[in-house]
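sorry for the late reply, my laptop died twice this morning and i had to redo everyting from scratch. anyway the thing you sent over, i finally got around to it. pasting the sequence first so we're on the same page, its 92 residues, then the predicted structure underneath. double check i copied it right bc i was rushing
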Amino acid sequence: APGTRELHELRRRSVLDFPATQERVACRYCLHLTGDTAALTVTLTADTAYLPPRTIHAHLRGIEEIVVASAVGSPPPLSRLAELLAGPEADR
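ok and here's the structure:
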């Protein structure tokens, strides 16, 4: 398993994009996680009428932070989850 330093370095390879749009979305917020020994894939389908792209991006980065911190043995306390999911824009 990768160590703390390697996991933090691997975060630089994370890719966030909006590959497709749909006229109708079956759910307002659907999170799907898949993985194998090589990678974890997080797919988020969200209705931008309810959750703007900027907020979707912040949620994905927050989830990434939670997963990586947990993998290295220092999961964030539950009291920080809302802050992590809000993203850095919440500080403004």
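Residues 66 and 80 are 10 Å apart (CA to CA).
thats about all i looked at so far, will dig more tmrw
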